[in-house]
Amino acid sequence: RPEKRSFKRVEFCRSAAIVEAARRRSGGKCEMPDCGATPFRTDDGRPYLEVHHILPLSEGGEDGMLNVAALCPNCHRAQHHADRRDQLREDLQKVRGRQAGTIRQVESKD
């Protein structure tokens, strides 16, 4: 049997509302540009997507809609482990930047 060990860690308390809103915004599709993957369905029939913080909370990122993306598991792992993860992060930041500009335009019209 493998040896057991215990440790202490600190985790961020993420907003369940942000996670759900990001999944709704995605329309059931991975938000990574050029990803054509079809997510598998969970027991409740929803597409399985993982909500990723583009700028990690540990690096000062916000737990808000402009800093999250609903990603298929493959794209999510790539964000953390791919040799080109810096470029992948920039790609997501560009998408969110365009959305932020659109949001600001709509808000300024009100």
Q: Can you offer a commentary on this structure?
A:
There is one protein chain. This protein has 110 residues and is mainly α. The chain is 41% helix and 7% strand. It contains three helices and two strands. It has helices spanning 16-26, 73-81, 85-109, and strands at residues 50-53, 68-71. It has a two-stranded antiparallel sheet. The longest helix has 25 residues, at 85-109. It is globular and about 45 Å long. The relative contact order is 0.15.
Summarize the structure.
The protein is mostly helical and 110 residues long.
Comma- or semicolon-separated keywords:
two-stranded antiparallel sheet; mainly alpha; 3 helices; 110 residues
Mind sketching the topology for me?
Layout: H1 16-26, E1 50-53, E2 68-71, H2 73-81, H3 85-109
Antiparallel strand pairs: 1-2
Helix pairs in contact: 2-3
Structural class: mainly alpha
Average per-residue pLDDT, rounded, comes to 89
Oligomeric status of the shown chains? single chain
Q: State which percent range the strand residues make up.
A: 5-15%
Q: Alpha-carbon distance between the termini?
A: 64 Å
Uncertain ranges: 103-110
Roughly what percent helix? 40-55%
Global geometry: globular
Q: Work out the radius of gyration.
A: 16 Å
